[in-house]
Specification:
The structure is a homodimer of 343-residue chains. By secondary structure, the first copy, chain A, is an alpha/beta fold. Chain A is 34% helix and 22% strand. Chain A folds into two domains: 9-171, 3-Layer(aba) Sandwich (Peroxisomal Thiolase, Chain A, domain 1); 178-331, Peroxisomal Thiolase, Chain A, domain 1.
Chain lengths: 343, 343
């Protein structure tokens, strides 16, 4: 590995994927793509946190069903979420009784969990590994900002936490897409302190990870069909473009941000876009991977971004550290070699 | 892998380790063992959370110095802590600029981070990987229980969160101890709801992980010089013994719990013992690994235990899920084979 980039010589196959989302996400432009859209965002539970756990459980049940597998067919589970102590995962996933490594990557968790699951599968530690994450608007709002009952006004730069969960099964052999490389992000903090502008806080981390990956693999943005970032929203996306512009690279033609794809920004009143672990997770599992399987994409960079602050750290005046993890998806299962493939 | 057990054919070497602790830990029976004991538990910072971050940073600085390495010599970093959104790690470790996978395993984090670092090193993803965690009494108390200023009375079954941090550098070749196997824990919840009795909540997870490892490797407790659990305290330890008694296995002669080793229980007024990510981390790095290097041990099971609830989940009446991750330390760098080694 160099600078966090790991090329996979025996690229794991993404065997199955599932996305479960809430009502508002179902009403957005991607609504028809998700495996399940639930008008009742309590998911039949008494609390929002339990609702999020239940949603994660449903995503795993769905992905197992789509793969025609049972939990016993999975060797290793990587998961995490935004809630304090990651209770979305610890309560949502315990019924599957799987060996479990818990993660905290904030909204980068889908890429982090797929990365670690892919690394475990390629090394032979697991024949099949499961990567899962979620976020829920109502549990996130009261934890990070205000209880919903306050009816607090939202800043124009604020993003809307997606109610959604994504689950992916990686296995050692199988069909495309394959995970041919990953890049572990570095904590990047350029001093943004505005809790209502997470896109700005995360954009430098996304830039750094993508830039590192392109340098280490001697590739350029145009070598990929598409680059998807997690949840930069429109402010973070603008900053990302500016940062690449300074390097003489125009990302616009090949880039989309899951936070901008999820909602009709103006009509759905989500301000700067979607966010949350569930944002990139449900767009990946509901839209990107199905489109990949349908032949629309052959080479995709999936770059989920996370903001690693807590309400306590920002109340204490600390700036917001960002991180971005990258997963390179391809329909080729041969080792990734820039010269051969992209020349 | 079977049931979370992964045998490492090219066991990574533990190149260096460091433990940094606070005043109370320095006054305990292990006080002389730690690399650094700080009488000022603010570590020169303005808030307890920043103090914890600073302590983690110092643990990494110390382990790098002991290994005669710089941060640039480390390929991959695995870390996490107890604080909401793991800010102990995200603020404490960002200055090292390392590719970083954040973890949440509560008090099991030292074993989880060493496990994932070892797996990454054996697979060749990293030549050297760093595993880090911490806890701080003052940041944990106000997050999980009450602000210190309340002077709340503690239940007799409660444990005392250790102010401490541990850091371990794993590398592909080198001296003993070696990590010859790991066992990923499963979330285990037998319905304990008492937030003042975490040992009872975690003991079944410790039992399950150790039992699984013994079964999969066809070994018995007496095949190991010692088995160390993370922070069960005296109530959790009693339950662990009872559970093994039911299987006709007496763990007492080969077992110690880091939570019982850290303090003079009565004189230091810590009730049921120590706890926190920093408990097993600092005992491992300050005591177990140095004693291993000095020839006292040849085969050790290190089993850190975590409670995966949050204040929100227990206020909502949920029980406390536990998890335990296991790391098998040995002075042999050959593949672990029960028949050959232990017959």
């Amino acid at each position: 590995m160099q600078n966090g980039v790991i090329l996979l010589k025996r690229p794991p196959s993404i065997r199955a994927y599932a996305a479960v989302v809430g009502k508002k996400e179902g009403e957005g432009p991607l609504g028809d793509w998700f495996d399940q859209v639930h008008a009742d965002t309590t998911f039949g539970q008494k609390t929002w946190e339990q609702a999020e756990s239940r949603m994660q459980q449903m995503a795993v049940q769905t992905v197992l069903k789509k793969a025609d597998l049972s939990a016993a067919d999975i060797d290793l589970l990587f998961a995490g979420d935004l809630l304090n102590q990651c209770i979305g995962s610890s309560f949502g996933l315990q019924s599957f009784e799987l060996p479990y490594y818990g993660l905290y990557g904030a909204c980068s968790t889908m890429a982090e969990s797929i990365s670690l699951a892919s690394l475990a599968v390629q090394a032979g530690y697991a024949h099949r590994a499961l990567a899962v994450t979620s976020s829920h608007f109502c549990s996130a709002e009261r934890q990070y900002r205000m209880p919903l009952e306050y009816g607090g006004q939202r800043a124009p730069s604020a993003q809307w936490t997606v109610t959604g969960s994504g689950a992916v099964i990686l296995q050692s052999t199988g069909k495309a897409p394959y995970v041919r490389a990953v890049c572990a992000g570095r904590i990047t903090d350029l001093g943004v302190c505005d809790i209502n502008n997470m896109g700005a806080a995360m954009a430098p981390a996304a830039y750094r990870t993508i830039r590192t990956f392109l340098e280490e693999t001697h590739t350029s943005p145009n070598d990929y069909d598409h680059i998807f970032t997690g949840d930069l929203g429109h402010i973070g996306t603008s900053i990302l473009y500016e940062l690449f512009d300074q390097d003489g690279m125009d990302l616009r033609a090949v880039h989309d941000d899951c936070g901008l794809m999820m909602y009709n920004l103006k009509e759905q009143d989500v301000h700067a876009g979607g966010s949350g672990c569930g944002c990139s997770a449900s767009v990946l599992c509901g839209v990107i991977l199905p489109q990949f399987a349908a032949g629309k994409y052959h080479n995709v960079l999936f770059v989920a971004t996370g903001a690693l602050m807590s309400p306590t750290s920002y109340q204490q005046g600390s700036s917001i550290p960002g991180i971005a993890h990258l997963v390179y998806l391809s329909d080729q299962d041969t080792p990734f070699n820039r010269q051969e493939e992209l020349a």
